[in-house]
Write a structure and sequence with these properties.
Helix content is about 40%, strand content about 25%. By secondary structure, it is α/β, with parallel strands linked by helices. It folds into 2 domains: about 40 residues; about 120 residues, Glutaredoxin (3-Layer(aba) Sandwich), CATH 3.40.30. A 7-stranded mixed beta sheet has the order 2-1-3-4-5-6-7, with helices on both faces. The longest helix has about 40 residues. The radius of gyration is 22 Å and the shape is elongated. It starts with a helix and ends with a strand. InterPro entries: DUF411. Pfam families: DUF411. This is Metal-binding protein.
């Protein structure tokens, strides 16, 4: 009889721990969501957060950028420039974009870059200085982009000292 009471108490304890963990996760999710909404306004995407000027470079015939470009236009004041493949590679080299992270287009904003299909929320944070002065760019190689959304399941942060960090979103 004593063993049954012990098992009932143990099972009750596990349920309690699970319930507390679920409540903590729910609270943290709400806090993160509220913080994100304060950072940007969402209305079918990021809308009119800032009017930051950006140059969007690509080399024809890139066909994947149309969907991603629409999302960027809601965030940035974009000037689009088609360049030759040689000019494109020179731009990437001059910006210091690591070869392993190069993609189908490069966006230049105030001397920093966004390479490939970096998630729009990360772009919004980057544009407004959220990554700090030591970051020279964000990147997501084309091969890691989701073909349905043309954004990635994460991105890379490239620091001025050459360090590269992988961020999962």
């Amino acid at each position: 009889m004593a063993q049954r009471r012990y098992r009932v108490k143990k099972a009750g304890y596990r349920k309690y721990v699970f319930l507390v963990a679920a409540v903590v996760i729910a609270i943290l999710s709400v806090v993160v969501a509220i913080s994100a909404l304060k950072l940007i306004s969402i209305k079918g995407g990021v809308t009119n957060y800032t009017a930051t000027k950006a140059l969007f470079y690509y080399s024809p015939p890139c066909g994947c950028c149309d969907i991603y470009l629409q999302k960027l236009k809601s965030l940035l004041d974009i000037e689009i420039k088609a360049v030759s493949p040689d000019e494109f590679l020179t731009l990437k080299r001059d910006m210091g974009i690591p070869e392993s992270l190069q993609s189908c287009h490069t966006i230049v904003i105030n001397g920093k870059y966004i390479e490939g299909h970096v998630p729009i929320l990360a772009v919004a944070v980057f544009v407004n200085g959220g990554f700090g002065e030591d970051v020279k760019g964000l990147a997501l190689p084309h091969r890691e982009s989701d073909p349905n959304t043309w954004e990635g399941p994460g991105y890379y942060v490239v620091y001025k000292n050459g360090t590269i960090w992988r961020v999962y979103s």
